[in-house]
Write a structure and sequence with these properties.
Two copies of one chain form a homodimer. Chain A is mostly helical. Chain A is about 65% helix and about 0% strand. Chain A has eight helices and no strands. At the A-B interface, α1, α7 and α8 of A face α1, α7 and α8 of B. The structure holds a DNA duplex.
Chain lengths: ~210, ~210
DNA sequence: GTCTATACAAGGATAGAC
DNA sequence: GTCTATCCTTGTATAGAC
């Protein structure tokens, strides 16, 4: 069983730090390779090389290619979910449903940029993974989706979002718009703050010339 | 060389029709497998089985897995590109740039629904293909992208689309919004016409409650 | 055109030394 | 913790019969 002490044991912190650092390097290398090559073409040898290791050494940290990839994706959703929740919960009680949704949009984009390669890695490769991994990630993905669902439904109820469109379409549109930002070409040129403003405008008001 | 007579020879039409039919079955099976399993997990054996053939028989039609997959994706872009162009060109000369863009949106969605599994197959797997295939598809993808670029820029110039947003962001937003529709869950419930109306509304006016 | 049988390469996984 | 060496499965691709 290839399980390093994630933590909680009485081992010297020094050793844990090194192990954890390597582990992180591997995860980030894996994310990069996934984005560049896709799940199919990503070989463990590539990941190992990018992390400065030999192929066999990966098995000290992970049981399999699948479990490694799973961890890359899981980390991404978890981070994003947490980040967005915190941002929304920090709002004053007086915030409207629309304001909460807008804050969530900003939080999502902050997390996306912060995650680097892990964001596109998730968007691109989820559907290509073996069923077992998809199933194992499904709960957290669902929980996140439900969170958005509540935000959006509340904004519809408050009258801040149009009610004349199928709610499922509405949600799909908002969420896929946000997810796709990670795939945009020169996205790095924009700061998270700029991107948040722009996306809030696009999603809420559309590309049409604003009526005045 | 596994090249069936695409056509143009003096062979009896009967035989050609059968070969073409099988070829089509293979392509559609491949599209379905790509969507369901992803490029990684899609085995030629799966495709063959779904098309009612044995693995080896595929090589009568295609030189390799890669060339088969390439053809699936190429057909999709080509079809969509042509369809959208025709729709836009049929508009009266009096049509504004905004109206042309709106028509293109409708045409894109019609093509998307018409293509069935080929649409999501393209969206999902393009980035995972071997470089050679990506390169070979790049020209037609670029041409299509440029077409959109012109439509959008013209609508900005005519004042029908907001000019206060980075054009690259604007284009990315519109195009990725459209592409993602193929990935939506219960999209089958909506007709192409409904979807076109809804997407035009969302893209041009946003999700915010329309101001009156 | 389609099948069966098989060659062949690639890459994930394991064992054990250091 | 990391390396080297190796096993073993999988799946693409080919050959040749029917």
């Amino acid at each position: 069983m290839a399980q390093p002490n994630t933590n909680g044991s009485a081992r010297p912190t020094r050793a844990l730090a090194k192990s954890a650092a390597t582990r992180r390097r591997v995860i980030e290398a894996a994310a990069r390779m996934l984005v560049e090559q896709g799940y199919a073409a990503t070989r463990l040898a590539d990941i190992a090389a990018a992390a400065g290791l030999q192929t066999g050494s990966l098995y000290y940290y992970f049981d399999s290619k699948e479990s490694l990839v799973e961890e890359v994706l899981r980390y991404g959703v978890q981070f994003t979910h947490t980040h967005v929740r915190v941002i929304v919960e920090q709002l004053p009680d007086s915030a409207t449903a629309g304001e909460r949704l807008a804050a969530a949009v900003g939080g999502f984009l902050e997390a996306t940029l912060e995650l680097g390669n892990m964001s596109p890695a998730h968007v691109r490769t989820f559907h290509q993974l073996p069923t077992e991994i998809q199933d194992s990630l499904r709960p957290i993905r669902r929980a996140f989706a439900r969170f958005w669902e509540e935000l959006i439904d509340a904004a519809v109820a408050s009258g801040e979002i149009r009610a004349d469109i199928d709610p499922l379409v509405l949600r799909s549109f908002i969420i896929s718009s946000l997810e796709q930002v990670a795939e945009w070409p020169g996205r790095a040129r924009h700061s998270a703050r700029d991107l948040s403003d722009v996306m809030r405008t696009l999603i809420f008001d559309g590309v049409g010339r604003s009526r005045d």
